Amino acid sequence: LSSSSAASDVYKRQIINHQVVLEELLNTNGYNKIEMKAMFGHVSSDPTVTGFSDKFHKSIMTLNDEIVNGKPLLEFFPQFSRAKTANIHTYTFSTKGYVPNDLYVPFADKLESTLVELHTLGHSYDGIVIGGKAFDDNLIQVLKDAEEFGVPWTNDSGNRFLSTSTSDEVAEHFIKMSEDEIVSGAKKAVKLEIVSKKGIYVDDISRYGTNLLEGAPNNTGPVQLEVLMNRTAEYNVVNYFPETMFLDDGTEIEVLRFILEEI
């Protein structure tokens, strides 16, 4: 193909995918305006882009550039809606803990149903995953009580989804991100070692996954190899024990490793 022909093909693909995503989002059985705003309206950080409509279209263009044109990430779940795949990608990119309060409910409700649907379609990750966290004493005590009294534990910390990884290195990377609070004693380092049954492996479409970080400078730490646990998940706390790890400056810290099994 000539360069002009190839460019034309890319342009056509961009327009087609833009249209497909918009049609799926605007489908009466799909997403309403508030849900769309919760998932896509805040993605664009361009200060010159104002208003929901402009931000939304700018967001879809950004998604096209990153996950449609550059690499066919929307094809990793072929049985699945492109809009829902884009939703998960957007979550890994910009919305962990940053969704505005007034938009979090519709966003979380839609993401919850999306992860349930992927589980139903057979995309669950069956194996051990690790979450590196910094928890306060109260949350740690809840985990300990769950182990002692044999009651299920749920991640009620903000009613959030639980981001984990197949890599212990990644878990330690996230612990180090909270090292100031840990060293000061405000929080304690925790590793959640989970036997996943319904978690969804999203690395293929993650902003910080293998496909988008491959061959590019990575200032965000290691490739995350992310398995996303639904906010509705319940876990049996089987055991816990202390271990140690070292921060980048050589400081040794204690880490509590909890062994959990997803129910």
How far from one another are the termini? Answer: 53 Å
Supply the helix-strand structural class. Answer: alpha+beta
What is the radius of gyration computed over CA atoms, rounded to a whole number of angstroms?
20 Å
What helical percentage do the residues reach?
40-55%
Largest sheet: 4 strands, mixed
* Topology pattern, helix = H, strand = E: HHHHHEHEHHEEHEEE
Task: Supply database-style keywords.
263 residues; three-stranded antiparallel beta sheet
Q: Summed up, what is this model?
A:
The chain has 263 residues and is of the alpha+beta class. The chain has 9 helices and 7 strands; from the N terminus they run αααααβαβααββαβββ. Mean pLDDT is 76; it is low at 10-19 and 41-45.
Overview of this structure, please?
This protein has 263 residues and is α+β, with helices and mostly antiparallel strands. The protein has helices at residues 3-26, 33-41, 52-69, 82-95, 101-120, 137-149, 168-176, 179-184, 210-213, and strands at 127-135, 162-165, 188-196, 200-201, 226-229, 235-246, 252-262. Strand 6 and strand 7 form a beta hairpin. Helix 2 packs across helix 3 (52-69) and helix 2 (33-41) packs across helix 5 (101-120).
